[in-house]
C-alpha cells in the first residue's frame, strides 16, 4: 500500500500572544510544532503500513525550517519525505496550497492520501477536500476510525458528522482527513530519530514542480487578506466572589433576565 | 479556456452524455461529440470519463466578467424533515447583503422530499428557492451534492454563495470551490459588502486570537462557509411571496464514489445539538464525576439548553463526542453559554468565544475563562449551581 501523508508546521497556538497596541501576533519565542491533527494522520499511515506493508511518504509545503516536521514524521516511522519549499510558494491561500500539493501528488503513486482535518493556525479544513477534487478522487473528511476492506481495494471509514458518525465505504485511491479519536500518536524514540536523519528527503521548488509562477503563492491566490485585527474586546465582564451562593445566584439570574437571555 | 476532448482516448462508453445536465454531448459514430454552445464547463463529464478523454481548462475570470455575476445564494441544509437553523440565519443575513447590492436572495434546497420546506425560506426573506429533489440526494454524499451545486452555479452565475459551516457544509464547499477554481473563506463570523460591492468576509484565526477580513477580488462567485448561530434570523413574514423553481439535475449512481453504509446518532434521547441550541450548558473537568453531570443536565432542561463538555470530559466518555465544544469538537455561538469548571484553554475558547453572553463558574480566580466571561463567579460549582437552578425555577414559576 502506498500512502501519502500531508503535514504542516504550525505555531503552538496556545502560546501565541497578541500585542495589545498593534493588535499583531507576537510569534517570537512561540515554538513551532507538527499540527496535532496531522500527527494523527502520520500515526494512522504508519499503522496501515505496519499492517499491510508498503511505503509512507510525508509531504509538507513550507519555509526551510518546516523541515523539522518532516524529520518528526520520519522519526515516528514514515519512510521518506518531500519538502516543497520556495519563496514563490509563500502566501498561498487554501486553493493554491491544494493546487501546489496536488501537482506534486499527481507525479506519485498512491492508494491513500491522508491529512489532518484542519491546521490549528488557520482552522479552515479546506485543503484536504480541495486536493481530493484536483486529484479527482473521493474524499472522506473527519475520519475517526479506519479499516481496509478484506478485498484490499476499499476503505471503510467512520466519518464524524453533526449527530454522530456515518460509516462510509470508498474505493481507493481516496483522500482522508483525520480527526480526534482516530488513534493515539506515538512519540518518536531515539532509534527513530537517528534513523530519520538517514531517510531520503527530496526538495521540490516551483521550477522542479513545473507549474507557472503566476499560478502559485500569493499571486495565484483567489482570496486576499485585507486586514487583520484583534477580536473586539468585550466590555469588561462582571466578576463576583461567591461568598453567599444564594445572593450570587439571584444577581446572576437578574443579570440574565435583564439581557433577555432566557 | 474551454473543453478539450481527446477523441483518440474516447472509448465510446456513453457515460458522459448521461451525466450532462445541459444536453451538450451526443453520440457521434462510436464516440461522442460536444456542442460547445450548450456546454457550461461544469465538469460533470470530465468527472465520469473513465478514459480521461475530457479535460476542462479553467481560467481566472476578468473584472468585466465579474459584473455578470448577481444575487446572493444560500445553500440550505435539510435534515430530518426540517432545515438546519443556519439556513434561516443565512437567508436573513443574505437578505441584508442583497439589499445593499440591490440584488436577489436565492435559497438552494437540495435533497429528497424537501419541497415543503421552500415556503418557509420565502417567508424568511428569500426571493426565490431553487429546489433539486431527487432520491439520489436523500443522503448527503460529497459527489452528488457537488454536482448539484456546480450545475446550478455555473449557468446562473451568482455573485455570492454561502454555506453553513456544518460537517457537510465544510465537506461540500471546498469541493465545489476547487472544481470551479474559486477562493473560499472558512467558518466566517462576519459578512458585509464594501464600497466596491465586494463581499467582506471576517473570520477568526489563531484560535480566536486575531480576526481577518478576507476578500475574493478576482473570481466569482465569492464563497464562504458561515458559523451557525452567529447571525440571528428575523421573524418570518408569512405574507411574503416568492418564486419556487424546481430544477432537475441528472446524477447517476456511478458518479457517487462513496457509499454511506450506516448512520449512527450519538445524540442520545432528549439531548440537543450544541451547535443549534440558543443556550449551552458546558461542563469541564471541574465537574469531577460523571454522576455530577446531573446538575448541568437539570439546568439545561430548565432552559431548553444543550449539554456540552470540554475535551477531557468527552475523552473520559462522560458525554458523546458530538457534545464536545472547542477546536477538536464543535464550534458554537449560542446566546448564552455556561462554562462550569472549565479553565478556558485557547482550544476551548476557539469553539465558544463568539457566544453572546458567557457565564463562567470557576474556583480559580486566575482561570483564563474569566478573561472572556461576561459574568464570572469565583466559587464552587457545587455550592452555586443548585442555587442558580432554584432561582431560575422560582422565576419561571412566577411567569
Ligand atoms: C490540538 C488540541 C485540540 C484541543 N481541542 C479541544 C477542544 O476541542 N475542546 C476543549 O475543551 N479542549 C481542547 N483541547 C484541550 C485544552 O487544551 C484543555 O486541556 C481543555 O480545554 C481543558 O479542559 P477543562 O477546562 O475542562 O479542564 P481543566 O483545564 O483541568 O480545568 C478545570 C477547571 O475547573 C475548575 N474547577 C475544579 N473544580 C471546581 C469546582 N468544584 N468548582 C468550580 N470550578 C472548579 C478548575 O479551577 C479549572 O479551572 C485541545 C488541545 C489540543 C492540544
**Whole-number tally of structural domains of chain B:** 3
Number of strands of chain B: 22
Please report the two chains with the greatest interface, counting residues with C-beta closer than 8 angstroms to the partner's C-beta: A-B, 84 and 96 residues
CA-atom Rg of chain A in angstroms: 22 Å
Overall body shape of chain B: elongated
Q: Helical region count of chain B?
A: 11
Question: In CATH terms, what is the architecture of the largest domain in chain B?
Answer: 3-Layer(aba) Sandwich
CATH topology label of the largest domain in chain B = Rossmann fold
Strand runs of chain A, count: 15
Strand content of chain B: 25-35%
Instruction: Report how far apart the termini of chain A are.
Output: 55 Å
How many helix segments of chain A? 8
Report the biggest beta sheet of chain B as strand number plus sense, adding barrel if it closes.
7 strands, parallel
Whole-number total of structural domains of chain A: 1
Uncertain segments of chain B are: none
Assign the CATH superfamily of chain A: HUPs
Overall 3D shape of chain A: globular
CATH topology of chain A: Rossmann fold
Mind summarizing the main beta sheet of chain A? 9 strands, mixed
Helix percentage of chain A: 25-40%
Ions, cofactors and other ligands present here are:
flavin-adenine dinucleotide
Keywords:
heterodimer, A: 262 residues, alpha/beta, Rossmann fold, two-stranded antiparallel ribbon, 15 strands, 29% strand, B: 399 residues, Alpha-Beta Plaits, 3 domains, 7-stranded parallel sheet, 5-stranded parallel sheet, 22 strands, 26% strand, binds flavin-adenine dinucleotide
Quickly describe the structure.
The complex is a heterodimer of chains A (262) and B (399). With 262 residues, chain A is of the alpha/beta class.
Amino acid at each position: 500500500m502506498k500512502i501519502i501523508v500531508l503535514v504542516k508546521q504550525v505555531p503552538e497556538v496556545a502560546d501565541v500572544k497578541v500585542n495589545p497596541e498593534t493588535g499583531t501576533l507576537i510569534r517570537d519565542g512561540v515554538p513551532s510544532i507538527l499540527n496535532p491533527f496531522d500527527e494523527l494522520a502520520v500515526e494512522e499511515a504508519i499503522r496501515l503500513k505496519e499492517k499491510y506493508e508498503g511505503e509512507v511518504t510525508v509531504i509538507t509545503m513550507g519555509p526551510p525550517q518546516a523541515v523539522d516536521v518532516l524529520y518528526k514524521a520520519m522519526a515516528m516511522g514514515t519512510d521518506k519525505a518531500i519538502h516543497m519549499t520556495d519563496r514563490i510558494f509563500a502566501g498561498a491561500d487554501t486553493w493554491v496550497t491544494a493546487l501546489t500539493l496536488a501537482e506534486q501528488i499527481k507525479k506519485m503513486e498512491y492508494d491513500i492520501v491522508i491529512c489532518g482535518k484542519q491546521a490549528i493556525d488557520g482552522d479552515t479544513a479546506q485543503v484536504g477536500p480541495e486536493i481530493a477534487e484536483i486529484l479527482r478522487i473521493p474524499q472522506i473528511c473527519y475520519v475517526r476510525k479506519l479499516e481496509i476492506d478484506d478485498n484490499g481495494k476499499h476503505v471503510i471509514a467512520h466519518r464524524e458528522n453533526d449527530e454522530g458518525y456515518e460509516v462510509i465505504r470508498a474505493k481507493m485511491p481516496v483522500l482522508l482527513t483525520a480527526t480526534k479519536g482516530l488513534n493515539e500518536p506515538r512519540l518518536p524514540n531515539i532509534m527513530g530519530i537517528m534513523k530519520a536523519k538517514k531517510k531520503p528527503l527530496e526538495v521540490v521548488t516551483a521550477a522542479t514542480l513545473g507549474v507557472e509562477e503566476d499560478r502559485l503563492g500569493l499571486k495565484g491566490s483567489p482570496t486576499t487578506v485585507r486586514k487583520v485585527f484583534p477580536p473586539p474586546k468585550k466590555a469588561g465582564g462582571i466578576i463576583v466572589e461567591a461568598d453567599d451562593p444564594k445572593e450570587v445566584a439571584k444577581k446572576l439570574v437578574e443579570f440574565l433576565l435583564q439581557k433577555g437571555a432566557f | 479556456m474551454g473543453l478539450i476532448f481527446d477523441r483518440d482516448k474516447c472509448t465510446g462508453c456513453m457515460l458522459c452524455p448521461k451525466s450532462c445536465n445541459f444536453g451538450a454531448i451526443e453520440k457521434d459514430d462510436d464516440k461522442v461529440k460536444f456542442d460547445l454552445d450548450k456546454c457550461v464547463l461544469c465538469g460533470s463529464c470530465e468527472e465520469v470519463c473513465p478514459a480521461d478523454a475530457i479535460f476542462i481548462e479553467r481560467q481566472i475570470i476578468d473584472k468585466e466578467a465579474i459584473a455578470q455575476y448577481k444575487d446572493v445564494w444560500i445553500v440550505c441544509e435539510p435534515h430530518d424533515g426540517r432545515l438546519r437553523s443556519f439556513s434561516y440565519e443565512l437567508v436573513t443575513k443574505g437578505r441584508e447583503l442583497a439589499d445593499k447590492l440591490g440584488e436577489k436572495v436565492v435559497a438552494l434546497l437540495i435533497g429528497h422530499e424537501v419541497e415543503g420546506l421552500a415556503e418557509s425560506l420565502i417567508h424568511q426573506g428569500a426571493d426565490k428557492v431553487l429546489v433539486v429533489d431527487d432520491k439520489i440526494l436523500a443522503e448527503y454524499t460529497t459527489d452528488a451534492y457537488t454536482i448539484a451545486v456546480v450545475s446550478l452555479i455555473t449557468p446562473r452565475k451568482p455573485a455570492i454563495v454561502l454555506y453553513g459551516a456544518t460537517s457537510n457544509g465544510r465537506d461540500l464547499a471546498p469541493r465545489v470551490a476547487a472544481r470551479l477554481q474559486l477562493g473560499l473563506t472558512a467558518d466566517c463570523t462576519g459578512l458585509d459588502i464594501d464600497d466596491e460591492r465586494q463581499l467582506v468576509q471576517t473570520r477568526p484565526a489563531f484560535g480566536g486570537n486575531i480576526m481577518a477580513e478576507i476578500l475574493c477580488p478576482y473570481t466569482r462567485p465569492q464563497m464562504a462557509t458561515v458559523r451557525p448561530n452567529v447571525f440571528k434570523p428575523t421573524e418570518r413574514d408569512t405574507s411574503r411571496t416568492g418564486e419556487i423553481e424546481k430544477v432537475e439535475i441528472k446524477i447517476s449512481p456511478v458518479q457517487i464514489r462513496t457509499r454511506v453504509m450506516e448512520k449512527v446518532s450519538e445524540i442520545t434521547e432528549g439531548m440537543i445539538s450544541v451547535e443549534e441550541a440558543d443556550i449551552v450548558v458546558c461542563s469541564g473537568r471541574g465537574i469531577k464525576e460523571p454522576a455530577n453531570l446531573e446538575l448541568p443536565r437539570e439546568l439545561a432542561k430548565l432552559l431548553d439548553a444543550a449539554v456540552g463538555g470540554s475535551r477531557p470530559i468527552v475523552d473520559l466518555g462522560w458525554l458523546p463526542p458530538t457534545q464536545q465544544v472547542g477546536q477538536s469538537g464543535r464550534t458554537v455561538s449560542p446566546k448564552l453559554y455556561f462554562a462550569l469548571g472549565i479553565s478556558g484553554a485557547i482550544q476551548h475558547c476557539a469553539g465558544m468565544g463568539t457566544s453572546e453572553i458567557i457565564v463562567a463558574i470557576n474556583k480559580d480566580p486566575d482561570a483564563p475563562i474569566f478573561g472572556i466571561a461576561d459574568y464570572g463567579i469565583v466559587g464552587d460549582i457545587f455550592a452555586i449551581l443548585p442555587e442558580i437552578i432554584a432561582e431560575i425555577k422560582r422565576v419561571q414559576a412566577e411567569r
